[in-house]
Here is the input.
Amino acid sequence: MTIWSARTLRGGALAAGLLLAQAAQAETGLTVVQTLLPDEKSVFATVESQNVVPARARLGGTVVELRVHDGDAVTQGQTIALVGDDKLQFQLRAVDAQIAGLKSSQQQMQTELAREEALAQTGATSRQSLDRARTAATLASNALASRTAERAVLEQQMAEGAVLAPISGRVLQVPITRGSVVLPGDALASIAEGNFVLRLSVPERHAASLHVGDAVRLDATPPVAGRITLVYPQIIEGRVRADATAPGLGSYFVGQRVGVWIAAGRRHGIVIPAHLISQRFGLDYVRLEDGSDSPVQRGRDTPLPDMADGVEILSGLRAGDVVRAP
Here is the structure.
Protein backbone atom coordinates (compact mmCIF):
# COMPACT_ATOMS: atom_id res chain seq x y z
CA MET A 1 0.00 0.00 0.00
CA THR A 2 1.35 3.40 -1.00
CA ILE A 3 0.08 6.44 0.93
CA TRP A 4 0.30 10.06 -0.28
CA SER A 5 0.67 12.02 2.95
CA ALA A 6 0.41 15.77 3.51
CA ARG A 7 3.44 17.80 4.48
CA THR A 8 2.94 21.02 6.31
CA LEU A 9 3.19 23.85 3.80
CA ARG A 10 4.40 26.35 6.34
CA GLY A 11 5.48 25.33 9.86
CA GLY A 12 2.78 24.56 12.37
CA ALA A 13 0.50 27.44 11.37
CA LEU A 14 -1.43 25.25 8.92
CA ALA A 15 -0.96 21.91 10.68
CA ALA A 16 -4.38 21.98 12.33
CA GLY A 17 -7.08 20.87 9.92
CA LEU A 18 -4.76 20.57 6.91
CA LEU A 19 -5.93 17.79 4.56
CA LEU A 20 -3.37 17.30 1.85
CA ALA A 21 -4.37 15.09 -1.13
CA GLN A 22 -4.06 12.00 0.84
CA ALA A 23 -4.88 8.90 -1.02
CA ALA A 24 -4.41 5.27 -0.39
CA GLN A 25 -3.63 3.41 -3.55
CA ALA A 26 -4.38 -0.22 -3.11
CA GLU A 27 -4.72 -2.73 -5.83
CA THR A 28 -8.15 -1.32 -6.54
CA GLY A 29 -6.99 2.25 -7.13
CA LEU A 30 -6.46 5.64 -5.57
CA THR A 31 -8.86 7.12 -3.05
CA VAL A 32 -8.74 10.91 -3.16
CA VAL A 33 -9.71 13.45 -0.55
CA GLN A 34 -9.92 17.21 -0.50
CA THR A 35 -6.67 19.14 -0.25
CA LEU A 36 -6.05 22.54 1.26
CA LEU A 37 -4.41 24.40 -1.62
CA PRO A 38 -2.89 27.86 -1.83
CA ASP A 39 -5.27 30.31 -3.49
CA GLU A 40 -2.88 31.94 -5.94
CA LYS A 41 -3.17 35.49 -7.21
CA SER A 42 -1.49 36.86 -10.31
CA VAL A 43 0.52 40.04 -9.73
CA PHE A 44 3.28 41.86 -11.56
CA ALA A 45 6.82 42.05 -10.21
CA THR A 46 9.72 44.14 -11.41
CA VAL A 47 13.20 42.77 -11.91
CA GLU A 48 15.46 44.94 -9.77
CA SER A 49 19.01 44.85 -8.53
CA GLN A 50 19.50 44.71 -4.79
CA ASN A 51 22.21 47.36 -5.09
CA VAL A 52 22.55 50.09 -7.72
CA VAL A 53 25.78 51.95 -7.01
CA PRO A 54 27.01 55.10 -8.80
CA ALA A 55 30.61 55.27 -10.02
CA ARG A 56 31.72 58.75 -8.93
CA ALA A 57 34.59 60.97 -10.01
CA ARG A 58 37.24 61.70 -7.39
CA LEU A 59 38.79 64.49 -9.47
CA GLY A 60 37.18 67.48 -11.10
CA GLY A 61 37.99 68.13 -14.73
CA THR A 62 37.13 66.96 -18.24
CA VAL A 63 36.29 63.40 -19.28
CA VAL A 64 39.11 62.53 -21.68
CA GLU A 65 38.23 58.85 -22.12
CA LEU A 66 35.04 56.81 -21.65
CA ARG A 67 35.48 53.03 -21.69
CA VAL A 68 31.97 51.70 -21.00
CA HIS A 69 28.49 52.04 -22.46
CA ASP A 70 24.98 51.17 -21.30
CA GLY A 71 24.64 47.43 -20.75
CA ASP A 72 28.35 46.61 -20.47
CA ALA A 73 29.45 44.12 -17.81
CA VAL A 74 32.16 45.42 -15.47
CA THR A 75 34.19 44.01 -12.61
CA GLN A 76 35.04 45.69 -9.34
CA GLY A 77 38.04 48.01 -9.70
CA GLN A 78 37.82 48.21 -13.49
CA THR A 79 38.60 51.63 -14.99
CA ILE A 80 35.47 52.89 -16.71
CA ALA A 81 36.53 56.50 -17.47
CA LEU A 82 39.46 58.91 -17.22
CA VAL A 83 39.10 62.48 -15.99
CA GLY A 84 41.90 64.94 -16.75
CA ASP A 85 42.75 68.42 -15.44
CA ASP A 86 45.31 70.48 -17.41
CA LYS A 87 46.10 72.61 -14.35
CA LEU A 88 47.67 69.61 -12.67
CA GLN A 89 50.11 69.22 -15.55
CA PHE A 90 51.18 72.86 -15.22
CA GLN A 91 51.56 72.51 -11.46
CA LEU A 92 53.63 69.37 -11.94
CA ARG A 93 55.99 71.16 -14.34
CA ALA A 94 56.38 74.05 -11.88
CA VAL A 95 57.20 71.66 -9.04
CA ASP A 96 59.69 69.78 -11.24
CA ALA A 97 61.48 73.09 -11.97
CA GLN A 98 61.60 73.89 -8.26
CA ILE A 99 62.94 70.42 -7.48
CA ALA A 100 65.70 70.84 -10.07
CA GLY A 101 66.73 74.19 -8.50
CA LEU A 102 66.66 72.73 -4.99
CA LYS A 103 68.83 69.81 -6.03
CA SER A 104 71.44 72.25 -7.32
CA SER A 105 71.20 74.27 -4.10
CA GLN A 106 71.53 71.10 -2.03
CA GLN A 107 74.66 70.04 -3.89
CA GLN A 108 76.18 73.47 -3.34
CA MET A 109 75.34 73.38 0.37
CA GLN A 110 76.84 69.91 0.70
CA THR A 111 80.01 71.14 -1.03
CA GLU A 112 80.23 74.13 1.31
CA LEU A 113 79.69 71.86 4.31
CA ALA A 114 82.45 69.50 3.19
CA ARG A 115 84.85 72.47 2.73
CA GLU A 116 84.03 73.85 6.18
CA GLU A 117 84.51 70.43 7.79
CA ALA A 118 87.93 70.08 6.11
CA LEU A 119 89.00 73.57 7.30
CA ALA A 120 87.70 72.86 10.80
CA GLN A 121 90.03 69.84 11.07
CA THR A 122 93.05 72.08 10.44
CA GLY A 123 91.71 74.88 12.67
CA ALA A 124 91.48 77.33 9.73
CA THR A 125 87.76 78.13 10.31
CA SER A 126 85.59 78.89 13.28
CA ARG A 127 83.05 76.65 14.94
CA GLN A 128 80.31 79.17 14.14
CA SER A 129 81.02 79.03 10.41
CA LEU A 130 80.84 75.23 10.45
CA ASP A 131 77.44 75.33 12.21
CA ARG A 132 76.10 77.77 9.63
CA ALA A 133 77.17 75.43 6.80
CA ARG A 134 75.52 72.45 8.47
CA THR A 135 72.28 74.39 8.97
CA ALA A 136 72.24 75.56 5.36
CA ALA A 137 72.75 71.98 4.11
CA THR A 138 69.93 70.70 6.34
CA LEU A 139 67.55 73.42 5.16
CA ALA A 140 68.35 72.63 1.51
CA SER A 141 67.66 68.91 2.07
CA ASN A 142 64.36 69.63 3.85
CA ALA A 143 63.22 72.00 1.10
CA LEU A 144 63.98 69.36 -1.52
CA ALA A 145 62.04 66.72 0.46
CA SER A 146 59.07 69.09 0.80
CA ARG A 147 58.87 69.76 -2.95
CA THR A 148 59.26 66.03 -3.67
CA ALA A 149 56.28 65.33 -1.39
CA GLU A 150 54.23 68.00 -3.21
CA ARG A 151 55.05 66.29 -6.48
CA ALA A 152 53.81 62.95 -5.06
CA VAL A 153 50.54 64.63 -4.07
CA LEU A 154 50.08 65.96 -7.60
CA GLU A 155 50.81 62.53 -9.05
CA GLN A 156 48.19 60.99 -6.74
CA GLN A 157 45.63 63.60 -7.80
CA MET A 158 46.31 62.81 -11.44
CA ALA A 159 45.97 59.07 -10.72
CA GLU A 160 42.57 59.71 -9.12
CA GLY A 161 41.36 60.83 -12.52
CA ALA A 162 40.69 57.13 -13.22
CA VAL A 163 37.05 56.38 -12.34
CA LEU A 164 36.80 52.83 -11.01
CA ALA A 165 33.78 50.50 -10.88
CA PRO A 166 32.79 50.18 -7.19
CA ILE A 167 31.15 46.75 -7.67
CA SER A 168 30.91 44.00 -10.24
CA GLY A 169 27.75 44.08 -12.31
CA ARG A 170 26.16 45.65 -15.36
CA VAL A 171 26.18 49.30 -16.38
CA LEU A 172 22.64 50.67 -16.35
CA GLN A 173 23.26 54.26 -17.38
CA VAL A 174 26.13 56.50 -18.48
CA PRO A 175 24.82 60.09 -18.25
CA ILE A 176 28.01 61.74 -19.58
CA THR A 177 29.99 61.73 -22.80
CA ARG A 178 33.61 62.30 -23.69
CA GLY A 179 34.47 65.96 -23.15
CA SER A 180 31.93 66.46 -20.35
CA VAL A 181 33.02 68.61 -17.42
CA VAL A 182 32.57 66.92 -14.05
CA LEU A 183 33.11 67.92 -10.43
CA PRO A 184 34.42 65.76 -7.59
CA GLY A 185 31.61 63.42 -6.53
CA ASP A 186 29.68 63.52 -9.81
CA ALA A 187 28.27 60.15 -10.94
CA LEU A 188 29.66 59.01 -14.28
CA ALA A 189 27.78 55.69 -14.41
CA SER A 190 25.18 53.65 -12.53
CA ILE A 191 26.11 49.99 -11.97
CA ALA A 192 23.63 47.30 -10.95
CA GLU A 193 25.00 44.44 -8.91
CA GLY A 194 24.44 41.02 -10.47
CA ASN A 195 22.17 39.61 -7.74
CA PHE A 196 18.76 40.48 -9.20
CA VAL A 197 15.51 40.11 -7.27
CA LEU A 198 11.82 40.25 -8.10
CA ARG A 199 10.22 43.24 -6.37
CA LEU A 200 6.52 42.64 -5.81
CA SER A 201 3.93 45.29 -5.02
CA VAL A 202 0.78 43.71 -3.56
CA PRO A 203 -2.44 45.33 -2.25
CA GLU A 204 -2.39 45.62 1.51
CA ARG A 205 -5.36 43.26 1.91
CA HIS A 206 -2.94 40.47 1.01
CA ALA A 207 -0.24 41.63 3.44
CA ALA A 208 -1.17 38.97 6.02
CA SER A 209 -0.68 36.26 3.38
CA LEU A 210 2.92 37.21 2.55
CA HIS A 211 5.62 35.48 4.57
CA VAL A 212 9.33 35.01 4.12
CA GLY A 213 9.91 31.60 2.57
CA ASP A 214 6.58 31.40 0.74
CA ALA A 215 6.74 29.96 -2.75
CA VAL A 216 6.09 32.09 -5.82
CA ARG A 217 5.75 31.00 -9.43
CA LEU A 218 6.91 33.00 -12.43
CA ASP A 219 4.48 33.08 -15.32
CA ALA A 220 6.98 31.62 -17.81
CA THR A 221 7.36 28.56 -20.01
CA PRO A 222 8.23 26.31 -18.31
CA PRO A 223 7.08 27.78 -14.97
CA VAL A 224 9.91 28.89 -12.69
CA ALA A 225 9.60 28.50 -8.92
CA GLY A 226 11.00 31.05 -6.48
CA ARG A 227 10.85 32.09 -2.83
CA ILE A 228 10.02 35.29 -0.99
CA THR A 229 13.16 36.49 0.80
CA LEU A 230 12.03 39.81 2.29
CA VAL A 231 8.73 41.46 3.18
CA TYR A 232 9.09 45.19 3.75
CA PRO A 233 7.47 46.31 7.01
CA GLN A 234 6.06 49.56 5.59
CA ILE A 235 2.89 49.93 3.51
CA ILE A 236 3.17 52.70 0.92
CA GLU A 237 0.08 54.03 -0.88
CA GLY A 238 -1.95 51.00 0.11
CA ARG A 239 0.55 48.43 -1.17
CA VAL A 240 3.06 46.18 0.56
CA ARG A 241 6.38 45.40 -1.12
CA ALA A 242 8.29 42.12 -1.04
CA ASP A 243 11.42 40.70 -2.66
CA ALA A 244 11.66 37.23 -4.14
CA THR A 245 14.46 35.26 -5.75
CA ALA A 246 14.24 32.78 -8.59
CA PRO A 247 16.76 31.11 -10.90
CA GLY A 248 17.53 32.74 -14.22
CA LEU A 249 16.78 36.36 -13.28
CA GLY A 250 20.09 37.43 -14.79
CA SER A 251 18.61 36.94 -18.26
CA TYR A 252 15.95 39.59 -17.68
CA PHE A 253 16.27 43.34 -18.21
CA VAL A 254 16.49 45.51 -15.11
CA GLY A 255 13.08 47.07 -14.66
CA GLN A 256 11.29 44.40 -16.72
CA ARG A 257 7.78 43.53 -15.50
CA VAL A 258 7.17 39.82 -14.94
CA GLY A 259 3.94 38.03 -14.12
CA VAL A 260 4.16 36.21 -10.78
CA TRP A 261 1.72 33.97 -8.93
CA ILE A 262 1.67 34.36 -5.14
CA ALA A 263 -0.33 32.65 -2.40
CA ALA A 264 -3.18 34.91 -1.28
CA GLY A 265 -4.98 32.48 0.99
CA ARG A 266 -6.05 28.83 1.17
CA ARG A 267 -8.94 26.89 -0.38
CA HIS A 268 -10.05 23.28 -0.64
CA GLY A 269 -9.51 21.34 -3.83
CA ILE A 270 -8.73 17.92 -5.27
CA VAL A 271 -5.33 16.99 -6.66
CA ILE A 272 -4.46 13.69 -8.33
CA PRO A 273 -1.32 12.52 -10.18
CA ALA A 274 -1.23 13.43 -13.86
CA HIS A 275 -0.55 9.85 -14.95
CA LEU A 276 -4.05 8.85 -13.82
CA ILE A 277 -5.60 11.18 -16.42
CA SER A 278 -6.14 10.06 -19.99
CA GLN A 279 -7.26 12.15 -22.95
CA ARG A 280 -9.53 11.15 -25.79
CA PHE A 281 -11.03 13.41 -28.46
CA GLY A 282 -9.84 16.49 -26.59
CA LEU A 283 -11.51 15.51 -23.31
CA ASP A 284 -9.87 14.39 -20.06
CA TYR A 285 -11.01 11.18 -18.38
CA VAL A 286 -10.21 9.25 -15.22
CA ARG A 287 -11.07 5.59 -14.71
CA LEU A 288 -13.14 4.88 -11.64
CA GLU A 289 -13.13 1.77 -9.48
CA ASP A 290 -16.04 0.18 -11.35
CA GLY A 291 -14.14 0.42 -14.65
CA SER A 292 -16.13 3.32 -16.10
CA ASP A 293 -14.46 6.46 -17.44
CA SER A 294 -15.58 9.75 -15.95
CA PRO A 295 -14.91 13.06 -17.73
CA VAL A 296 -13.14 15.64 -15.58
CA GLN A 297 -12.24 19.28 -15.94
CA ARG A 298 -8.52 19.59 -15.58
CA GLY A 299 -7.08 22.62 -13.76
CA ARG A 300 -3.56 23.87 -13.51
CA ASP A 301 -0.55 21.79 -12.57
CA THR A 302 -0.27 21.72 -8.77
CA PRO A 303 2.87 19.88 -7.69
CA LEU A 304 2.83 18.91 -4.02
CA PRO A 305 5.71 17.78 -1.80
CA ASP A 306 4.60 14.14 -2.13
CA MET A 307 3.09 14.43 -5.61
CA ALA A 308 5.44 16.03 -8.09
CA ASP A 309 3.05 15.51 -11.04
CA GLY A 310 -0.07 16.70 -9.20
CA VAL A 311 -2.93 18.22 -11.23
CA GLU A 312 -5.93 20.01 -9.77
CA ILE A 313 -9.33 18.63 -10.76
CA LEU A 314 -12.00 21.34 -10.97
CA SER A 315 -14.99 19.07 -11.58
CA GLY A 316 -15.83 15.43 -12.20
CA LEU A 317 -14.46 14.00 -8.96
CA ARG A 318 -15.36 14.27 -5.32
CA ALA A 319 -13.86 13.18 -2.05
CA GLY A 320 -14.12 9.41 -1.60
CA ASP A 321 -13.95 8.49 -5.27
CA VAL A 322 -11.50 5.74 -6.15
CA VAL A 323 -9.46 6.23 -9.32
CA ARG A 324 -7.45 3.55 -11.11
CA ALA A 325 -4.69 3.87 -13.65
CA PRO A 326 -6.09 3.86 -17.23
In short: Residues 2-50+195-324 form a domain with the Elongation Factor Tu (Ef-tu); domain 3 fold (CATH 2.40.30.170). Confidence is low (pLDDT under 50) at residues 1-27.
